[in-house]
Predict the structure.
Amino acid sequence: MDLHTVKEAENGDFTINNISCNVQKSNAEQRLENVVLVPDVLPAENPPVSSRVRWFHTANIFAALFALGMVSAVTGTTFDDLAYIFDENVEVVSRIIISKNVGAFLSAIACGGLIFQIMNARSVMLWTMIAGGLGTALAPLIPELWMVHVGMFVTGVSSGVFECGANVWLVHLWGKSIGPILQIYNLMFGLGALVAPPLTAPFLGHNITEHTTHNATIFTSTIDTDYLEASSNGSNYLTKVWIPYMVFGGTYTAVGLLLIVGFILDTTKLDRVLKGDTAACKANRPMSYRFHWSLVTVTTCYVLFTVCIEATMGQMLFLYAENPSISLRGRQPLDLVTIFWGTYTVGRLISTFASLVVNPCVIVVISQSMLSVGCGVFFLLVLNPASSSWAIWLGTAMTGAGVSPLYGSACAWAFQYFHLRFVEMALILTAACIGQSVPIYLVAPLVQSSPGFFPVVLAAEAVLLLIFLFLIFFWTKGAVRMQ
C-alpha cells in the first residue's frame, strides 16, 4: 500500500485509494492521537550530504568556534591597552562588552524570527563572519572609541548569527549522533578562549597599574600570570595589542571565507532542508504542540541558569576571592580562577568522550550532582565562615567540573524529542545572552558591597537549575524520541 494515499481524519475515518473505511480507535490509539503514518524518506529535493562533505562542514564550524573563542577572549585581556590607546579609564572601555552582548542578543532574535526565513542562512553566516572578523581586527586601529563600540556590536551580531545557524546546521547533519558533536562544539569555543590570553600577553603594554589589572581580571576568564606581575607605576606605556586583534579577527574572517568552499561542495540551502525536516516532523510527530513548546521552554530556562552560573563564577570569582574578609592572600585569588577554568575545561573534555557511549541525560544528571555539591560547599562559607580554608577550593573545583557539560548535554537531550529549527535555537541563544549579562549588572554590585552574597547567589541559581532539570524529566518521561 502506498503510504502517501493514507490520510487520517479526526473522527477515525480513513480514505485508502478513494475507498472510505471506519476504524474504531482503541484507548491506546486515542492517547496517541497525534501519531500518523509517514514515508521513511525525506523529499527528493533534500538528499543527504556525503560523509566527506558532512565532515568538511563540521570541521569548518569547529574552526570558526575556535576563532570565535579567541575573538571573545581578547577584549577582556586588553582593556588596559585599549584604555591607554583611547585615553579612557578601564571602566569606560569595558562597556564595549555591552555592545557585543546587545549585538548577539538582537541577532539571535532576528535570525530565529525573520532573517533566516527570508534569506539563505549560510550566506548570512558568511557575510556576518567576514564583518565580525573585521570589526575585531580593526578595533585598536580606529581613532574613536564609539567606532570600537560599533565594531564590537557587529562582532556580537556575527556571533549570534553564526551560533544560531551552526547549531541548527549541525543537528541537521548529524541527527541522532548530535550529542558528541555538541560537546566538541562547546569545547572548541572554550579552547579558543583559553589560548587567546597567553598568545596576547607578549603584545600587551609593559606598565599596568594594580587597579586596572584587577578590573581587567573580572572581565576575562584567564590572564597570563606574567602579565599580572608586570604592574608598575611608570609612564612609558608601549603596546602592540593591534597584532593579536588582527590575527584573531583575521582568522575568524578567513574561516568564514571557507564557507564558500562549502557552497561549492554542497549547494543545498539550509532553510530548504529544514522545511523538509519540519514536514517530516509534522508527519511523524510523537508529541503535541503543547509538549513541544513546553520542552523548548524548560530547556531554554535550564540554559539560562546554566549560563548564569558560568558567568557568576567566571566574572566574579576573582572579585569575591580578593576581598580581605576571605582567607586568600597574594596570588591565591588568581590561582582560584585558574582552578575554576582548568576544571571547567577538564569537565568538558571528559563529557565529550562520555557522550560517545552514554545518553546525554546521564551526563546531565552526573554533572548536575557535582554542581549541586560544589554550590552547597560554597554555601558553607555563609553558614560557617571558618570553613573557608578548604570550602572555597573544593567548591570552585566541583562547580567548574559540574557546570561545563550542562549546556551542550541538556540541548542534546532535548533535541532528541523535536526537530531543531531556527526559532528554537534563537530562544536558547537569547537565554544564553541574558544569562551571561545578568550577573554583570545585577549581581556584581552586591558582591562588591557584601562578599557573602556570592555563595548565596550560587546556591539560589543551583536550586533553580535543579527545578528546571526535574521539569525536563517530567516532560520527557515516556515521550517518544525523534527518528
